[in-house]
Amino acid sequence: MELVKHNDELQRRIELLDVTADLQLAKELMELHQAKCAACQEDRLRCATRPACKDRNFLNALIEIGVEVIDLPDFCYSQNVEQIRRLVLEKKGRRMIDRRLPIKDLLQSLGVSSIRHFTTKYKKEWDNFASVHEGNLMLVTGDGLLFRFDFTRGIVTVNPSKDRIRSYNIFKLYCDLFSERYQVNMTVKDVTQNWWILSLTVDDSDAAAVKALQKGDLAESFDAIYRTESEGKVQIQVEVLLDTDAKYLESEDLSELFVKASKLCK
After folding, report:
1. Least crowded by CB within 10 Å, which of 73, 114, 174, 219?
2. Of 67-71, 154-158, 216-220, which has the strongest mean pLDDT?
3. Contacts (Cβ under 8 Å, ≥6 apart) of 171
4. What's the half-sphere exposure (Cβ side, CA atoms, 13 Å) at 88?
5. Residues 146/87, Cβ–Cβ less than 8 Å
6. Which CATH number does 164-262 carry?
7. pTM of the full structure
C-alpha cells in the first residue's frame, strides 16, 4: 500500500486553496489515512465487516482519483471486489451504491472477458435490461442494478446514485436509459448549454398524481415541473437549469422521476 506518492492526484481534486497549500493538505490526509488503513487491515474481521472508513469511502476515493490497484490497501480492496461480485452474481449482501472499481477487475470477478461479453450475457439473464452508449461513457441497467462505465478512466461505478449530472450529454444519456428501462416515452432538448427540458408522455387519467409530483420533495431537484397538452398527448415538462457551478442534478433524482412517470403511463 503506497498512498503518499499519489498526493498530486488528490491535490488536483481538492482545489480549495492554492496549489502548494492543497498539496500539503493532500499529503497530510494521505499519511493519516495510510496509518488508518494499515491499522484497519490488521484486524481482518473488522475490515471485512465494519471497515474504519464508512462504506469504504476512502478506498472509493482512491479509485476515483486513479490510484493504481497495486498501491491500494490490498485486503480492503479484495473485500470490495468480493462484495460487488456477490451482489451481482448471488444477490447477497446489503445493497451498495456508488461503489467504484477498475473495469477490468469487475469483468474478471464476474467471469466475463469483455464489455461485449458482459452486455450479451446479462441481456439474456436480467429482467428489464437496458443499455446506452455514447463516446467513452456507457450505462447499463437490469435486475435492479445500474452500472456507469467510464472508458476514458477505466472505472465503473456500481449503482451510481449521487452521480452529478453537469452536462447535457450525460443528462440525455441517463434519460435515454431510464426511458428504455421504465418504458416511458420522452424527448429532451437543450435550450441553452445549461437549460434543458425533458418531456415525458403520460396518461391523463390521474391528474392528482401529476399534482403530487409537482408538489413533492422530488420537485425540489428540478427548476420546474408542469403539465402540458400537445397534439392530443399529455406531457409532464421538466426543466433543469444549472445556473451556478455548485448546482447539479443527481442520477438518483432522475431515476426517481422516471419511476414516478412510469406509474402515470397506460
Report:
1. 114
2. 154-158
3. 165, 188, 196, 240, 249, 254
4. 26
5. no
6. 3.30.1360
7. 0.90
